[in-house]
Amino acid sequence: MKQKIITYVKNHPKNIAFLFWIYNHILGFNRIMINSKNSIDIGAVLLNKTTFIVKGINNTIIIKDLSRMKFCKININGNNNRIIINEEVYLCNTELQIEDNDNEISIGEHTSINGTTHLAAIEGTSIIIGNDCMFSSDIQFRTGDSHSIIDLGGNRLNISEDICIGNHVWIGTQVTCLKGVHIASNCIVGAGSLANKKFADENVILAGNPARVVKRQVNWLRERIL
User: Fold this and answer.
1) Residue 22: its pLDDT value, please?
2) What is the domain partition of the chain in residue ranges?
3) What is the spatial distance between Cα 71 and Cα 73, in angstroms, rounded to a whole number?
4) What is the reported pLDDT for 1?
5) How many angstroms separate the CA atoms of 199 and 211, rounded?
């Protein structure tokens, strides 16, 4: 029955869009604070106790069909920023924070974030998360340090950088990803790890502080199998 409902929504989202609108605006206890200089496009999506606060102009939020957000916050303070949440994404206790201009946060389809997670993009950077990723809880992604480190000549050293996560990546509990991190597809990041650089190899386990490759030739499933 569940799959039939999902298939119907995929094929006829406009037919039941008003039901999602009623729930999101009346029954879901959501708070949406976006002025006419910004845009939000919410498809056949369920929102529950979720807050949107957007300050600035030309900011865009797109949430595609069959995604669900519970106890989430989206906060944008700047101009020309984009947040894209693709089809069938599940977010719980997730905060998407953007400051400054020309940033982007994108979450690929079928990705799930299952507990307290903070994704922060600043200074014209992006956080790109691929399809079918699985995040645990107490996770921090930050593209910048929020403050400046300078040399004795007054030149800034800690420039903000993009974060990019491939497809089908499992991020364990209490993981921190700092600016410039790239993780290839089909990888696992172990609990409590600190990632601070690019990892080009697929099918590896990363763990430690700082994170390093601890095992190769692996993959993972959402299901527990015998």
Assistant:
1) 85
2) 2-216
3) 7
4) 55
5) 10
Reading phi first (left if > 0) and then psi (alpha if -120 to 50, else beta), residue 180 is in left
**Burial of residue 119, with CB atoms counted within 10 A of its CB: 0-12 exposed, 13-18 middle, 19 or more buried:** buried
Q: Which position has the token pair 């498809």?
A: 43
The torsion region of residue 89 among left (phi > 0), alpha (psi -120 to 50) and beta comes to: beta
Q: How many residues does the chain have?
A: 226
pLDDT along the chain (226 residues), means of 10: 63 72 87 94 94 98 96 98 97 98 98 97 98 98 96 96 98 98 98 98 98 98 93
Quick check: 109 and 66 in contact, CB under 8 A?
no
Decide if domain 2-216 falls under CATH 1.20.1530.20. no
> Which residue pairs, CB below 8 angstroms and at least 24 apart, start in 221-224?
222/134
Strands (E) located in 34-162: 39-42, 46-48, 51-55, 60-63, 68-70, 73-77, 82-85, 90-92, 94-99, 104-107, 112-113, 117-122, 126-129, 134-135, 139-142
- The per-residue pLDDT for 17 is 72
Element (H, E) at 10: helix 2-11
Average pLDDT over the chain, rounded to an integer: 94
Q: How far is CA 193 from CA 41, 96, 155, in A?
A: 35, 21, 30
